[in-house]
Design goal:
With about 100 residues, this protein is α+β, with helices and mostly antiparallel strands. The protein contains three helices and five strands, in the order αβββαβαβ.
Length: about 100
């Protein structure tokens, strides 16, 4: 029984996901990641979370995303056990410095 508890604790960090932003003058990049296990996305789809961080009126220059379909080999492998990401680069007015 202890072995199962240790195994569950060891796998717990894999269920975490991340989202964040980087700013460099007028160039901005947002990203979001999610963990996939047997076709279940934990905690949720990363693509909408990344788009939520892009402000209205921003000029999107690049969108990169990992394959998450069931029609390609990489997509199937990623959906069974893997991490997916979405990264969006855009131009917008400079973000004021934090006080």
């Amino acid at each position: 029984m202890k072995k199962y508890a240790y195994c569950a604790l060891a796998l717990l960090p894999l269920t975490a996901s991340c989202a964040g932003a980087r700013h460099n003058g007028t160039q901005h990049t947002v990203h979001a990641e999610a963990f996939h296990f047997l076709g279940i996305t934990i905690p949720s789809d990363e693509n909408p979370r990344a788009w939520e961080m892009v402000p209205e009126g921003a000029e999107v220059t690049t969108v990169r995303s990992s394959p998450s379909d069931w029609t390609s080999v990489l997509g199937v492998i990623s959906n069974l056990f893997g991490i997916s990401y979405t990264e969006i680069s855009y131009e917008a007015p400079e973000v004021p410095a934090a006080k």
